[in-house]
Write a structure and sequence with these properties.
mainly alpha, elongated, 199 residues
Length: 199
Amino acid sequence: MFRRRSDDAPSSAAALAEQDETPSTRDPQAKKGRPTPKRSEAEAHRRTRVTVPKDRKEAAKQSRERLRSEREKQRVALLNGDERALPPRDKGPVRRFARDYVDSRWSLAEFFLPFAVVILVLSVLRVPALQLLSTLLFLVFLVMVVLDFLRLGLGLRKQLVTRFPNENTRGVLSYGLMRILQMRRLRLPKPQVKRGERP
């Protein structure tokens, strides 16, 4: 019986040594630095912190109001370029750089949709010469847009590699290329740089 206790002594000493090496938390006997609140105060604090409506209609109304206010915040942020309230898709310095890179350059791709509408109108007319001309113009413009797309995409990729070598740039290239297809005045977040400015 005594022998077993003496055998356990070194293991308990080793356990104490391990406890000394681990970072110590606050001593349970030490004061916490503030008085313990009364039960009535703690319950009142809980009631004011969590306001749960009594009926489902009121809860749905509050939820809709909260969602509406969050959407309004995001809309204003998209118009002003406020980084703090932007949706996750547009946040971060890498995506901001991609936006600025695209917005500071001219591109044919942003005029693709208006040009396609003009070509569609020309192709609807019953004049064979205009229909042939519209088809040829569309093919030439499409080739030029693809080449311009490649030029801007390769330039953006090169800039991302040099400027943000340690950042995660996954999806940023497609984000920038989709922005190229939008007309400048319709882009959200609104462009923060002028054409020709260096981002």
